[in-house]
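User: Need the bound-state model for zinc ion:
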Amino acid sequence: MRRPVTPEESAFIQERVERFAAEAPEELLWQEPHVRAHGALPLYVGWTETVGIRPDGEMVRWSTEDWPGAVELDDATWYKIGLVLGARRYPILQRLVPDRPAGARDCDLCKGSGRFPLQPEIVCQCGGVGWVDPQ
Ligand SMILES: [Zn+2]
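Assistant: Bound-state model below.
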């Protein structure tokens, strides 16, 4: 999956990748070898897999335990989660969060907030966008 990015957004992602070792919050520094190897900025960091975006807008995921390399992200929910969380850390990426399509309904679980009820720090199963695609 690829999210079309503007030249400014692309340059922003490129810069964050290049400066990751210097800029990343301490709890993410262990991702530095992966960032360098895959040329992607981590957006969602899970226990064993990370979702990231490359400067050209390509969304990829990589394992931090089980397998080498990075593969193209092919899951719509993780795509949304990555962009929603990425935009929380880097507000310039907010434009990349998918727009709510016509006909989408509010997510039943989070009632449109995108955050898991009772544990708002957890992203809802709708991918954090607060809506569910009609399809
Ligand atoms: Zn939801």
